[in-house]
Amino acid sequence: MQAVVFENYQRFPTLADVPVPEPGPDEVLLRVAGAGACHSDVSVYRHFEEGQPGAQKPPFVLGHETSGWAERLGDNVSGIDPGAAYLVYGPIGCGHCRACARGEETYCENAASLPYLAVGLGRDGGMAEYVTVPAHHLIPLGDADPVHAAPLADAGLTPYHAVKQALPHLAGGGRHALVIGLGGLGQIGVQILKALTGATVIATDLNAKARDLAERGGAVTITGGERQVEEVREITGGRGVDAAFDFVGTTGTIAAAASSMAPKGRLSVVGIAGGTHEFSFFSTPYESYVTNTYWGTVGDLWEVVDMYRAGQIRPELELFAMDDALDAYRRLEEGALAGRAVVLPDPD
Ligand code: NAD
Ligand code: ZN
Predict the structure, then answer these.
(1) 15 and 330 in contact (C-beta within 8 Å)?
(2) So where are the chain's domains?
């Protein structure tokens, strides 16, 4: 079968012919419906070096945002219907520590001793016709469209987890949220904020098309750049935002988001551009928080699927055939996409 393979650090992936995998015990072979291209993959193949935190040893098939149909069950698997559509919960922890017991395999206490981080991160992922997945990582999609569901596995789950942590800050009238970076994650982040809170959602991106899309999703957009913090102050009557979400993560965007906060505000840095943040008593709004967040829990993903089925999340997609899968990554790197790039490995 054809697959997008990350062959070595700091090398653009290749389209290669690889064997169809065999499902091991407790695993399911999934025929892939949709595989989303996440900007984190760009960090995987462009920036990471061996031994660096987050780096995953090549080679492996990319794709940590996957949906598909159960094709074949490994030994001991029950509760999965062959032929039915599922979404893949990507993170894989040890399965028996405190964090894994809470469904937070992202924060597995034994992560350092595991051979891989997730389906598509260190272990073969969904940018292929077939992928094997631990059975308890499959979330049923029922009759919902599996192709449009693919981005939910990361571009939906990550902002959902971040927004859910910030909900106490956004409860009540007259609240404001700020979203910086309106790509795959940011657009769905806006939809989730609109569905879960009554807050005014202020959103910004360098790209005008991305801002238009966010406006259609109910956000108030600002152009960003030097006047960004001032514009946020104008919209919020000088107070600043109660919660900010930075889906870029450069030193500049973190600084803009941090300076836009109201006292007691919360900034979640989601983008992994590697920016740094300076703290000082006088330059920081009182009792405000700056935190990071990584992906989400399996329980969160069930709730994201519920929101999708209820029509509260509607991912915008740009579709690519398997033969053009590398173009999906090229366009992602150029910032030329008008929605999440999703590769369709199954020509039918
Ligand atoms: P994307 O490429 O689809 O979107 C990024 C958007 O940010 C683009 O629209 C781009 O125009 C915009 N942008 C870039 N620089 C900007 C700036 N200075 N100001 C305003 N807008 C700017 O990327 P994505 O797949 O949505 O991922 C977003 C980020 O989140 C990436 O860094 C990715 O690696 C990271 N990520 C983190 C997690 C996590 O768990 N923390 C999970 C998935 C992705
Ligand atoms: Zn664990």
Answers:
(1) no
(2) 2-154+296-344, 157-292
Alpha carbons 332 and 286: distance in angstroms, whole number: 38
CA of 211 to the centre of ligand 1 (A): 14
CATH of 2-154+296-344, one of 1.10.287.130, 3.40.50.2000, 3.90.180.10, 2.40.160.60: 3.90.180.10
Name the closest-CA residue to atom 5, ligand 1.
Answer: 183
The closest ligand to the CA of 329 turns out to be: 1
CA dihedral 157, 159, 164, 166 (to 10 degrees): 160
Determine the topology of domain 157-292 in CATH: Rossmann fold (3.40.50)
Global pTM? Answer: 0.98
Beta-carbon neighbours within 5 Å of ion ligand 2: 93-94, 97, 100, 108
Summarised one tens digit per residue, pLDDT across range 9-37 is 999 999 999 999 999 999 999 999 999 99
Contacts of 168 (CB under 8 A, 6+ apart): none
Q: Hey, what amino acid is at 81?
A: D
Q: Which of 295, 297, 247 is nearest to 267 (CA)?
A: 247
